[in-house]
Design brief:
The longest helix has 16 residues. A hairpin with a 2-residue loop joins strand 3 and strand 4. This protein is globular. It is built from four helices and eleven strands. The chain has a seven-stranded mixed sheet. It has a two-stranded antiparallel sheet with strand order 1-2. A two-stranded antiparallel ribbon has the order 6-9. By secondary structure, it is α+β, with helices and mostly antiparallel strands. It has two domains: 43 residues, no CATH class; 126 residues, Jelly Rolls (Sandwich), CATH 2.60.120.1140.
Length: 197
């Protein structure tokens, strides 16, 4: 803030031994104040460093709704877990939309080449192929089939290497948040992550 001070009347030096109080008038420079407030507001909106998104549950723990807290590329995810053949076959068939922090984790008891198809799925997805230690093996972006598509027209995806987990999130999620081959998926179930290659 800039203030300009003006003295009125004689100065103490001009009065000799007589001292008289001088009045000080303070004038505010309105444009300078506005600029200062603008700078303060801009700085208040700037992050001080990398921002992390907090999650209500620690990574690797389940919420009361049964979803599992995971982290991929520093971003929290709340995922439904499909660990039985019936759950894996159903997948996201009944889901109309996913938020950016939602998905589904498919858990397997072995390492194998995984084959997925989009039958009855209404969502465009990123399919993230993950090894037993949580390392991303690859990512496949896939679109939902068009209504009335024949089985031959339904999009399919195959893991690039044997996978123990498959994560499905909204299509483009991995590009937006920087998940790539070699990124670690944190919070995977420990019973599966102890398997060796």
């Amino acid at each position: 803030m800039l203030f300009a001070a003006e003295r009125s009347g004689p100065t103490p030096a001009s009065l000799g031994s007589r001292s008289r109080m001088t009045s000080v008038k303070t004038r505010c420079d309105l444009p300078s104040i506005l600029v200062l407030w603008l700078v303060v507001l801009l700085l208040a909106g700037c992050p001080a460093g990398p921002q992390t998104v907090s999650s209500p549950h620690p990574v690797g723990e389940r919420g009361t709704d049964g979803r599992l807290a995971l982290e991929l590329a520093g971003r929290p995810l709340w995922v439904a877990v499909a660990s039985t053949p019936t759950e894996r076959q159903r997948g996201l068939q009944d889901v109309a939309a996913l938020a950016d922090d939602e998905g589904m984790l498919f858990v397997y008891d072995d390492l194998d080449i995984r084959r997925y198809w989009m039958k009855d799925c209404r969502l465009d997805l990123d399919i993230v192929w993950v090894d037993a230690h949580g390392q991303v093996l690859g990512i496949t972006e896939i679109v939902a089939p068009k209504p009335g598509a024949t089985d031959a027209e339904i999009p399919r995806a195959v893991s690039p290497e044997p996978a123990a987990f498959v994560l499905e999130v909204t299509r483009g999620w991995c590009r937006r948040f920087g998940a790539v081959r070699g990124t670690t998926l944190r919070g995977i179930p420990t019973h599966a992550s102890k398997r060796s290659h």
